[in-house]
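Late entry, written up from scratch paper. The run itself happened at the end of the previous shift, but nothing got recorded in the book at the time, so transcribing now.
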Amino acid sequence: MVAFNRGYEGNTLNLPQFNFKIKTGETGKFLIFDELRKKWLFLTPEEWVRQHIIKYLIEHKGYPKSLFALEKGIWYNEMRKRFDVLVLDRMGEPFFLIECKAPEIKLTQKTVEQVCLYNKKIGAAFLGISNGKAHIFMEKQVNVEKYLQINHFPVFK
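Output as recorded:
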């Protein structure tokens, strides 16, 4: 098992560096330990971003570990979808929905539409999309079905 904080396959992220538990699995592929789910996961570029986002929200923004839901399935128009990260507020309501992409994936209108589609079912107050290098955040406007872009991670209260 190794702990390292460098970029995955040369991809340096626009997030602080963290130490993660990483090991080589039986197939020869790297695995990363997910501290919230308490299990080893394949270390894909998307997972590398997801783990950084989670760590950042907990260690730098004070989000409680107990309020995270990770990679849960939802139904939308009779299709099974899966969101990446959902943070609930202290009342158990959806607060911040985040879609993670691999660092080489550009954030486009299509990625924004993906998280918006998921949020039609979830109803989070804040949305985020990140490839670890670029981040887009949006806040729901009160009393209207409209989100405005903001330039920071939402503050957890």
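The first strand starts at residue 2 and ends at 4.
(Scratch paper discarded after transcription.)
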